[in-house]
Design brief:
Distance between the termini: 61 Å
Strand order of the largest sheet: 1-2
Strand content: under 5%
Structural class: mainly alpha
Number of helices: 9
Order of helices and strands: EEHHHHHHEEHHH
Helix content: 55-70%
Number of strands: 4
Shape: globular
Radius of gyration: 19 Å
């Protein structure tokens, strides 16, 4: 068993002002995405300025934060937030939904594309390889918060999390998700998108790979207490939300290459 590294969730405390590591991870994700996007900007659209890119990143970030928070409220704990609406503002306590954030990003991307002469999938293909930076950083934030831990296990790398009332040795599922949703997904998308791909293919690859990675980790991650398992003693809300991503991602990839073949044959 490995010792859990005791890290104060508060990174900086200045009197009543407290800056949490969880919040800083969002800055890492947004800043990292902007830096990598700026490297790929000329290949995406040489007429775009850094200011326009900054606008895109800003609106996508708003989609992540608002969509992620509202997604958690509606998908995972609606009754609790209705009972205490002020909790919605306390984002530093955790409670963000990737799937809600994805919906927020899609809406922000659609709106931004309409205003700037870009199709929805042109922008989504550009954005998709950047998303794993934020995903990986967010999972590190979950680990520091000692939240979203895994099932009890006897593997050598198991940890006892200070927030666990049972104090059992558990899978560090946050680190599994960091490795898969962050490192592995970034590597796949970065190299896949380096070569010209038909429109929709990169977006499809993101959706399919993320869905598969998240579906797998859900087998060892403890579901939210207020929901538990939804069926068969193992199916979680996260897995249900990932199924349309997997199927939709595969469908997008197939459609993108089929359309390319048809256009090439004309």
């Amino acid at each position: 068993m490995l010792p859990y590294p005791q890290i104060d969730p508060v990174a900086i405390a200045l009197g009543p002002l407290k800056i949490h590591w969880y919040g800083l991870m969002y800055l890492v994700g947004i800043g990292g995405a902007w830096l990598l996007a700026s490297r790929r900007l000329e290949r995406f659209d040489a007429t775009w300025s850094k200011d326009k890119l900054s606008d895109l990143v800003f609106w996508v970030a708003m989609g992540v934060i608002l969509g992620g928070r509202l997604g958690y409220v509606f998908f995972y704990d609606f009754a609790a937030y209705i009972a205490e609406p002020a909790k919605i503002l306390r984002v530093w306590e955790g409670g963000m939904s990737f799937h809600g954030g994805l919906i927020g990003v899609m809406l922000a991307t659609w709106w931004f594309g309409k205003r700037n002469g870009k199709s929805f999938f042109e922008l989504m293909d550009f954005i998709a390889p950047l998303v794993p930076i934020g995903l990986g950083a967010g999972r590190i934030g979950n680990f520091i918060n000692a939240e979203l831990w895994g099932k009890a296990t006897d593997v050598p790398w198991a940890m006892v999390f200070p927030t666990d009332p049972e104090q059992l040795a558990r899978h560090p599922s946050q680190l599994y998700q960091f490795a898969l949703e962050g490192v592995a997904l970034f590597t796949i998308l970065w190299f896949y998108s380096r070569k010209p791909r038909p429109t929709m293919a990169v977006s499809g690859m993101f959706a399919a790979c993320y869905g598969v990675f998240r579906f797998i980790v859900e087998f060892v991650r403890v579901p939210d207490a207020q929901l538990g398992y939804l069926a068969w003693g193992w199916l979680t809300m996260g897995q249900i939300l990932c199924l349309p991503m997997i199927l939709g991602g595969i469908g997008l990839i197939a459609y993108a290459y089929k359309r390319q073949a048809v256009q090439g044959a004309v």
